[in-house]
């Protein structure tokens, strides 16, 4: 049985993670930031996108979804931790991107676990 969610490059949750990461990483191009905010958004956005691509390539990689949840939480708290909460556009990008990343990672977790179990049965 080879359902669409078990094949590489077909899981919508992981595609969402890639899109979220790319939008966050590129967001300093269209909003006012300082150096700290810019690099925080670029680095965390790139990590979210890269982990989403890794999850797309290897659908049974359960820990990849856990990493997404951690990255989403880090993105959410980054305006306060990195001190750029005064830049409202950058802050809202981090907060919304962080929440969406956590939700996408959590939603993909059961699918990744099922795919991992199926791979172990072969």
Keywords:
elongated; 122 residues; mainly alpha; single chain
Explained architecture:
- It is a single chain.
- This protein is an all-alpha fold.
- It has one domain.
- Helices cover 75% and strands 0% of the residues.
- The chain is built from four helices and no strands.
- It has helices at residues 12-26, 35-57, 62-81, 88-120.
- The protein is elongated, with a radius of gyration of 15 Å.
- The N and C termini lie close together (11 Å).
- The relative contact order is 0.20.
- The mean pLDDT is 89.
**Could you give the count of β-strands?**
0
Helix content class: over 70%
Largest sheet: none
Choose one word for the global shape: elongated
The first-to-last residue Cα distance is 11 Å
Strand content: under 5%
SSE sequence, one letter per element: HHHH
Give the C-alpha Rg: 15 Å
**Mean pLDDT, rounded to whole units?**
89
Number of domains: 1
**Tally of individual helices:** 4
Structural class, from secondary structure content? Answer: mainly alpha
Stretches where pLDDT is under 50 for at least 5 consecutive residues are: none
């Amino acid at each position: 049985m080879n359902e669409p969610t078990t094949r590489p490059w077909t899981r919508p949750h992981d595609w969402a993670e890639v899109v979220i990461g790319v939008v966050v990483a590129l967001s300093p191009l269209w909003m006012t930031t300082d150096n700290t905010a810019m690099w925080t958004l670029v680095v965390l956005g790139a990590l979210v996108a890269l982990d989403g691509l890794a999850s797309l390539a290897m659908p049974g990689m359960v820990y990849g979804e856990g990493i997404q949840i951690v990255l989403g939480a880090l993105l959410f708290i980054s305006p306060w931790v990195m001190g750029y909460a005064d830049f409202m556009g950058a802050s809202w990008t981090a907060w919304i991107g962080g929440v969406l990343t956590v939700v996408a990672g959590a939603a993909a977790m059961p699918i990744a676990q099922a795919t991992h179990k199926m791979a172990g049965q072969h």
